[in-house]
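Internal ticket - ligand job 169, zinc ion:
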Amino acid sequence: MPSDKITIERIALLHPKLRDEALAIYDEIVQALGNHSMCRYTATLRTFAEQDKLYAQGRTTKGSKVTNARGGQSYHNYGLALDIVLVLDKDKNGLYESAVWDVRGDFDRDGRADWMEIVNIFKQYGWEWGGDWKFYDAPHFQKTFGYSVRQLLDLHNKGKVDKNGYVLI
Ligand SMILES: [Zn+2]
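stdout (structure tokens):
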């Protein structure tokens, strides 16, 4: 069973309430996909400063716009969201070297798109998928526990956080 070091490291940055679950989900994904493709969690926690930098892209710095959220306005800023990518071992040398954002590819040839297999697993655990939104964001998943980002920012600003800075929810 492939275990992806990057993914494991990024799970450790999620909000403490989501870490075990994100790992359980990851295990299920690995089982569902087999050895043909692998899922990687590319981004989990993003600091407010990192978010502001991303927001500036396409506005005050070069590149194209990638987000409408400033620091504090994204669930990533609270460790309550993650982004994924599929990685493939195209040359069959045991290394997953090619990243794909293909929601339709059926790389394990089981008649179901790998990306949608992943979506279904997250949904079974009550996560929302960015692919269901008008602002389509296929790599994005989040679990908010009913909190708006405004409420989370409020908790953050009032110092209602644990010793590592995660909001107390
Ligand atoms: Zn995201």
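Auto-summary: Residues 67 and 100 are 20 Å apart (CA to CA). The chain has five helices and five strands.
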